[in-house]
Amino acid sequence: MSPRAVNPPVPAATDPALIRNFCIIAHIDHGKSTLADRMLQITGIVSDRDMRAQYLDRMDIERERGITIKSQAVRMPWAVADESGRDVAYALNMIDTPGHVDFSYEVSRSLAACEGAILLVDAAQGIEAQTLANLYLALENDLEIIPVLNKIDLPAAEPEKYARELADLIGGSPDDVMKVSGKTGLGVEALLDRVVQRIPAPVGDADAPPRAMIFDSVYDSYRGVVTYVRMVDGQLNPRERIQMMSTKATHEILEIGVSAPEPTPSKGLGVGEVGYLITGVKDVRQSKVGDTVTTAVKPAADALDGYTEPLPMVFSGLYPIDGSDYPELREALDKLKLSDAALVYEPETSVALGFGFRAGFLGLLHLEIVTERLRREFGLDIIATAPSVVYEVTTEDKKTVTVTNPSEFPTGAKIAEVREPMVKAAILAPKDYVGTIMELCQSRRGTLLGMEYLGEDRVEIRYDMPLGEIVFDFFDHLKSKTAGYASLDYEPSGDQAADLVKVDILLQGEQVDAFSAIVHRDKAYAYGVLMTGRLRELIPRQQFEVPIQAAIGARIIARESIRAMRKDVLAKCYGGDISRKRKLLEKQKEGKKRMKMVGRVEVPQEAFIAALSGDTESKDSKKK
Question: Where along the chain is GTP bound (predicted)?
Answer without folding.
Answer: 29-34, 150-153
